[in-house]
Structure formats: C-alpha cells, structure tokens
Specification:
Layout (H helix, E strand, L loop, with lengths): L2 H9 L18 E2 L6 E2 L4 E2 L6 E2 L5 E2 L5 E2 L9 H7 L5 H12 L5 H22 L2 H24 L2
Antiparallel strand pairs: 1-2, 3-4, 5-6
Helix pairs in contact: 2-4, 2-5, 3-5
Length: 155
C-alpha cells in the first residue's frame, strides 16, 4: 500500500466498532467495547446491543449467536422470574423450544432478540410480586404443556 493511502487511514477516526472483515490491516487499533482492552480483531458483535467484543467478553449461545455479559441469555427471563429458578423443568422446555425452533429461522431469531432486549425489566417487576408470579405461571402453563406434548410425540 502506498504511504499516502496508509496515512489517510491513520488520520481517520475509527468507528465505534467494526467487523474484522472490513478493517484494513494496520489501519485502526480496535478495542473491546466491554472490557476496553485493545485487540487485533474482534471475536464478535453482541446480537442484542451491537458491541464489538474480544474473545474474553463475547459469549456464544447454543445457537451460535454472540452476546456480551449484559445480554447473555441465562434462560427465559420472565419464566425464570415466574418459576423462581432457572433450573425449573418448565424453563428447560421453553429454553429447548427457543434453541431448537426459534433460533433456526430469521423471524424466530428476531423475536428472541427483541425478547432479550425488552423482557429484563418486565421480569424484574414480576419477580417482586408473588401474586403476579402465580398469574404468569398460570399464563405460561398452556404453552409449556403444548410444547411438552409436542416433544413427547417426536421419535
């Protein structure tokens, strides 16, 4: 690369984050937007907030999506609040539906992404009220039962 082109790259302000495929070699110093450490290349972009992440901060889900620690899906937020534990059998059924059905198509991935960005405050609100938790459990039970019956029918 001629030196005048290299100096043009060096004089530009780097974008907030960039994907490695579009970064000219030696043009910018990349930083992980989670820990702030300089990196040669980003491990991925958070599927929810779009932060560029290093290999230490980026986490992969079962569906090969990258998440930062703030948005890492640990289960179904609202269901976890309703059932009181991420280990409840109902949550495992919902988690399996997310991983094996929703994450396998574009519309499902969009729904999951929206759910992860919108549901934490709702789950926080639900978790503080025992009556509301019972109402949500009652509302989720037909969905869980339907998914459970479909799962039993599969060979």
């Amino acid at each position: 690369m001629p030196t005048n082109q290299r100096s043009n790259y060096q004089n530009q302000q780097p974008p907030q984050y960039v994907t490695p495929a579009y970064v000219p070699i030696g043009s910018y110093q990349l930083f992980c937007q989670s820990c702030g450490q300089p990196v040669q290349r980003l491990a991925g972009i958070c599927s929810v907030c779009g932060k560029g992440l290093c290999i230490h901060c980026g986490r992969m889900s079962n569906a090969n999506r990258v998440y930062c620690s703030q948005h890492l899906p640990s289960g179904c937020f609202i269901a976890t609040a309703a059932y009181g534990s991420p280990m409840a059998k109902e949550i495992n059924i919902l988690r399996e539906f997310r991983d094996n059905t929703l994450e396998k198509n574009r519309t499902g991935r969009f729904f999951v992404s929206m759910y992860y960005s919108l549901s934490p405050p709702v789950a926080n609100f639900i978790s503080k009220d025992d009556e509301l938790r019972a109402i949500v459990r009652h509302a989720l039970s037909p969905v869980v039962n339907l998914l459970k019956s479909k799962h039993k029918k599969k060979p």
